Amino acid sequence: MDIIRDDAIDPAPLAGKRVAIIGYGNQGRAQALNLADSGIDLVIGLREGSDTFDKVRADGLTPVNIEDAPKGAALTMMLVPDEQMTGIYGVIEPALEHGSALGFSHGLAEHFGYIDPREDLDVILVAPKGPGTALRQLYTEGKGMPALWAVSTDKSGKAKQIALAYGKAIGCARAGLIASSFEEECVADLFNEQAVVWGGVPALLLAGYETLVEAGYSEEVAYFECITELKLLADLIEARGIAGMREAISNTAELGAVLGGPAIVDFPVRKRMREILKSVQQGEFAAQLAEEAAEGYPLLKKMRAEAGDHASEVTLAKLARLSPNKPSSD
Question: Own/partner pairs for 96-102, CB < 8 Å, 24+ apart?
Answer without folding.
Answer: 96/70, 96/121, 97/70, 97/71, 97/72, 97/73, 99/155, 99/156, 100/70, 100/73, 100/74, 100/75, 100/76, 101/74, 101/75, 101/76, 101/156, 101/159, 101/162, 102/75, 102/76, 102/78
